[in-house]
Give the backbone structure.
Amino acid sequence: MPELPEVETTCRGIAPHVSGRLVARLAVHNPRLRWPVAADLPEWAQGQRILGVGRRAKYLLLTLERGHLMLHLGMSGSLRVLPVNTARETHDHFDLEMDSGWTLRFNDPRRFGSLARIEGDPAAHPLLRELAPEPLEPGFDGHYLHRITRRRRVAIKQALMNSRLVVGVGNIYASEALFRAGIRPGRAARSLTVQECARLARTVRQVLTTAIRHGGTTLRDYVSAEGKPGYFRQKLYVYERAGQPCRRCGTLIRQRRQGQRSTYYCPNCQS
DNA sequence: ATGGGCACCTGGCTGC
DNA sequence: TGCAGCCAGGTGCCCA
């Protein structure tokens, strides 16, 4: 599922419902996620106040009084705000019930998502400490992109999806940013000029920002905290458009495999 | 240091 | 109708 825009949309959607609330109960219905949910997590979370919610890369971080809860939506996860008594559905994994009578409900068919506790500084956590800077924060620009790709022989598309180089960009937005920058996904990362890196940094930011404005992209499973799909799919230029005409020049969009993932591009607009 | 490939899952679709 | 095969928004880990 979820790349940065979908996680950010979820984060903004749940924030007004969770900030300041007390955790009435953490009910784990199915602990089998990417890592099993720790058995003592419910006891630990219960009664703590939720001080705020944030995002780092594709992780959601709930700040509690005595630590953080770290959530990942994996490929197919979604987090919704529902009345506590709402009937459960298949693949509902846990409920973070609040004193307001509402619950944060996590559903994840493919079970690549996760829920874990962090004690101490989240930035020092093993899953977070090696992450690259945020693409929507100052400092992510052409110079940064140019510098970190100098010794990279991998394709630029794979470099964009490497969370040690750039965070938040997954399979959809990597293809889309490269289209908007006019750069072929198969180019060696180190072959990009400063100008191309500047263009690409701009389109990465642009495509993520615009997607957030449209509530993200829904292909199959993703829904926001309110249960609504994202509408950015209608704005996609290349992703899942193989064989269809390019929306800029009419040339047929091509699909190829890169690192076991599908990549889409326009052979005329991108070089 | 870098990069390739696999693993973890379920479900939906295609084609025989 | 059934079933095999393939594909899907992520990413940690092992190996070369």
User: Anything to note?
Assistant: Chain A has two domains: 4-124, 142-219+231-265. Residues 1-3, 6, 34, 58, 72-76, 110, 112-113, 127, 161, 163, 170-173, 216-222, 239, 261-262 of chain A lie near DNA strand C (CB under 10 Å from a C1'). The first helix of chain A runs from residue 4 to 18. Chain A has six helices and ten strands.
